[in-house]
Amino acid sequence: MSNDVMAQIEARNTKKDSLPEFEIGDTVDVSVRITEGDKSRIQLFSGIVIARKHSGLRETFTVRRIVAGEGVERIFPIHSPAMVGVKVKRHGVTRRAKLYFLRERIGKATRLKERIVVKKETGEKVQKTRKRGSKAKKERLARAEAEGGATKPKKGKKGKRAKTKAKAKA
Asked: Per CATH, the architecture of 1-105 is what?
């Protein structure tokens, strides 16, 4: 009997429709309502989602960012009335459920590879497919060329032949 009451309360208080789908490794902007005295404002906190915990009304996610050389982590309850929204800026490729290893890393070592999400419309349903690895790389290069960005040329292997040719030219 108590489980039914809890399920009803959770169903009534969850706000599933307003949040986009985001996963661990995604870079997000979290909008939070902050009340100072009698004034309230919306503050953005942007960073990488390093963890998601619990389920139902108790579900939370942890966002990490670097501020003035210090790592700052905030834990946000998904169904909190203070949280206005979440905007996904970038999808990251991860192979773990918790990205706590990013705490020891600094600078460019904290970057994750980008996961390209393609939405396919099949009739009424919108199906998402993820491209990883070489498919994602081809997609990124094609997008960069379309936007007019320069792509890096592939570096050739420098073996004995390349070294002897370089010496012969000099």
From this structure: Roll (2.30)
